[in-house]
Design goal:
Length: about 375
């Protein structure tokens, strides 16, 4: 198998003398003893007894332990497939006797194609928010396959929750004590990440609100509303993708709650995750409403500024209309126009034009239109 397939630390095998391992560390999977060192994640390989430590990248032959179960006979609790090749998928299908969904099937939105039970094997596909800190956030489909005592995750992206959870597993082997533990640990990590994103979005929207409603004399005032609109649009896009991910997680929680194979403590943990999903969804709805409000407010401010510009042109047109009329009258080429031969005709015409322009401006100013 390629190094893109990872195994979480397996359960500790039965030992004739439990006192030799009082701290419950996974034998053969820990770099250090009870000191809490990093846990080696076993990379899938041929049955040649080779263990790979992800912390160092070094490979070394596994030392035989007569009292332990051979590693080749162990069942992994977690197989993480990141961008697997067709050969890797075929080997997983052969090894676990399952049919792994294709990448196209993972993108289907109907519920029956995302959450189903096939001969006791649970197939669960959810959309997880990825690249949330960039200008182009996206949702990526990730499939969880629960096969008896093994969890298989199939993904074609590397979102932050998976990176974080793998680091935590390397530090604490107990997080990967069973397939269900890994599944709920990943779901909790995804939900925590969505909560962090919603908190950050709320803070960003508060800053945008101050900018939108700031006075033109305020240092934070931005005359160019295009940047504000782009930031509001990004917040709305991020909120929409987060709500899509939360909806998928909520459906996954409902699907798991109907499975009789889950133990009581596991269902209690699932209820906690479901409550968190509901509360974050409500917060995401609040953010969506906030985005709509700020978008309407920004467009309203733009309309006000445009109206002020149009008002200036309207006042200018009204102010210069009387002088234009006077100039047009005296520009007519009639033979009988007494003012043309008058000595003060020209100064009078100029004075009338100035007066006809000043009077409207004075009137508009008095009315507060300027």
């Amino acid at each position: 198998m390629d190094s893109n397939e990872f195994f979480a630390p397996a359960r500790p095998p039965v030992d004739d003398n439990p006192d030799d391992n009082p701290d419950g560390n996974v034998a053969g999977n820990s770099d250090e003893s009870a000191g809490g060192g990093s846990v080696a994640v076993v990379v899938a390989a041929e049955d040649d007894g080779v263990a790979v430590d992800r912390a160092t990248g070094d490979a070394a032959p596994a030392e035989p332990r007569p009292a332990k179960t051979p590693k080749s006979d162990r069942t992994p609790v977690w197989v993480d497939l990141l961008n697997p090749s067709s050969d890797e998928i075929h080997e997983i299908e052969k090894r676990f006797a399952i049919e792994v969904p294709t990448r196209e099937e993972m993108q289907e939105i109907e519920l029956s194609s995302r959450l189903y039970d096939e001969d006791g094997v649970l197939f669960m596909t959810v959309s997880v928010l990825n690249k949330a800190n960039t200008d182009e956030p996206e949702t990526t489909a990730i499939t969880f396959i629960l096969v008896k005592k093994t969890l298989i995750t199939l993904r074609y992206a590397d979102p932050i929750p998976f990176k974080t959870f793998i680091r935590r597993v390397n530090r604490t082997a107990a997080l990967a004590s069973s397939a269900e533990t890994v599944l709920f640990g990943l779901l909790e990590q995804i939900v925590d990440r969505l909560a962090d994103i919603m908190e950050q979005s709320t803070a960003d929207l508060e800053g945008l609100s101050n900018i939108v409603f700031s006075s033109p004399d305020d240092p934070e005032y931005e005359g160019d509303h295009r940047a504000v609109l782009r930031r509001i649009g990004r917040a709305g896009n991020l909120s929409g993708k987060a709500k899509d991910s939360l909806l998928n997680l909520h459906r996954l929680g409902l699907f798991l709650s109907t499975q009789p194979r889950l133990k009581k403590d596991t269902k209690t943990r699932l209820k906690t995750i479901s409550r968190d999903i509901v509360s974050i969804t409500e917060h995401a709805n609040f953010i969506a409403n906030k985005v709509t409000f700020l978008l309407d407010a920004t467009l309203g401010m733009i309309n006000l500024e445009q109206n002020n510009i149009i008002k200036i042109f309207s006042v200018a047109a009204a102010a210069f209309l009387p002088p234009t009329l006077i100039a047009s009258i005296y520009g007519m080429n009639f033979d009988v126009m007494p003012e043309l031969d008058w000595q003060f005709g020209y100064p009078l015409a100029i004075g009338l034009m100035v007066l006809s322009a000043v009077l409207p401006l004075w009137y508009f100013k008095r009315k507060g239109w300027l």
